[in-house]
Amino acid sequence: MVTFTSFPPPQTSASHGRVKHHPDVEDDVAMDLDYEELSGSGSRLTCPGDYITSSQAFMRGHGTYVENEEVIASVAGTVERVNKLVTVRAIRTRYNPEVGDLVVGRITEVQPKRWKVDANSRQDAVLMLSSVNLPGGIQRRKLESDELQMRTFFEEGDLLVAEVQAFFSDGAMSLHTRSLKYGKLRNGQIVTVPPILVRRLKSHFISLPCGVDLILGLNGYIWVSKHVKENDQEGEEGFDAEAVYSNQNDDIDYATRVAISRVTNIIRVLAAHFVPLTDTILLEAYEWVVDQELGTKEILLDETGELFVAALTGGRE
Amino acid sequence: MASRIEILNDGGFRSDGRKQYELRDISIDLSSQSSADGSASVSHGLTQVVVSVFGPREAKMRRETIHDRANINVEVNVAPFSAGERRRRGRGDKRILEFASTIKSTFEPVIQTTLYPRSQIDIYVQILQQDGGVLQACINATTLALASAGIPLLDFVCAVTGGVHSTSPLLDLTTLEENDIPHVTVAVMPRTGKVTLVTMETRLHVDRFEDIFRVACEAGKVIHKEMRAAVKERTGALVAAMGAAPRVAGAGAEAGERDVVMDERIDDY
Predict the structure, then answer these.
(1) What is the pLDDT of residue A179?
(2) Which family does it belong to (chain B) (predicted)?
(3) Which of A269, B80, B100, B181 is the most buried (most CB within 10 A)?
(4) Do B28 and A30 touch (CB under 8 A)?
(5) Is A53 on the interface with B (CB under 8 A)?
């Protein structure tokens, strides 16, 4: 008879370092751990279904629900409290839009008088024809002819940077691009990171000295592109429709291409190690990579990634 | 009866050396896979499944949107090499569709779908290895994937298979045992003890049902401990990774500090 021996299950990193105890003593050990956790200075972590506090003394916020006068967590994350309001912020989740946020998105659909935009949120965002800048002056009525040639402004698949303007009753967000900073994106590539890693900064438009511009969308979409000079960006008479809605990339020289892909790979590595992105850390990371004379592809290797993140985060502590 | 395998021998051991109520080794991997919002790989002994969760996101099919809550879409794929006998199952296979709808109905009362009107949550289940208890592995992996995607759940859903050999209940059956004895899969929400799924495909004596059901509910709580520890470890690791990053000047650092203030112990009150 044929016998079959199975391979032992691979030791995953998740189970690494955790001691298994007999069920009878496990509770005691777990209790000790909980106690340590509570007395520690770190933030309190929850799992779905965990009891947080009594609902009589506190108000429930996002990430919680009330049952039998108990506030219970519904997501895995950290507990936050503002006065009497208790919320749980999920560690990994989709983007939660707020008015005024800068987002990068991709057109998914052209509909009457509006575009649908994928912005990594729970529903597609809406960009109304009335909230984009059209050629021939900012203050001008939108005509029927504009509605007919909407695809000349934005087509399916186009990338754009916009600001969250308002919300609809069902929670979908409405965007606007009524500023010279916003509009169609070209001359670069997009990287996606978990939205929690992009914190609110003074400016989300970053120019790195290596000739690369970054747009850190709060929705976790990051646009890495060739540097454009300030005055070029605005055009001669303030608004150049040809340039703003152009689908043609400028000439990008080899050095800039390398710099763009290097920055993109740095962002990928940082995101994989769950490091929040800011202008300074990106700059430091770029310098580190150049110092080590790493090739663009080598940045993505596991071992260099770990070294690299250790160098960035370890040096400060 | 020489060719038949002894399910439970005189010493109280099963064919793979386990005791009656002993569960197989569980391993959980929550590291993220590709572009999924949440993913989990769970194995119960030799049974292994990978679940990826996408969403809540815009529904691909307009007609599938529900105006007041999210739509849950479950797709199951059984790898041809997963069972002892190589066999390809199509997408439209009735058994797989039923399997998917079982998972869907298990999670519908648990996911807080009303928070995401007109959205869709996609759950993709891949069965990589089958050795009994496939449904329980799928349900446990789905729970973990949903939790790691940050989708609000009322509680974990922990599933376990129970069977009965003559009069003695067994837990976490292998294929060998599933082929021979009546079995039932139970999914519990451990905090309240509510049961979201009881299913069986074999006939079971009504007098035996209560025993198995009760033991399976208990076992669900044991599995819950493992799952909770895994989620907590993952959350802790991610929070630590975010905290370890240098706090540099700028609004980002301010936001970070503000968080710390808000994290004051609630229990102190």
Answers:
(1) 85
(2) Belongs to the RNase PH family.
(3) A269
(4) no
(5) yes
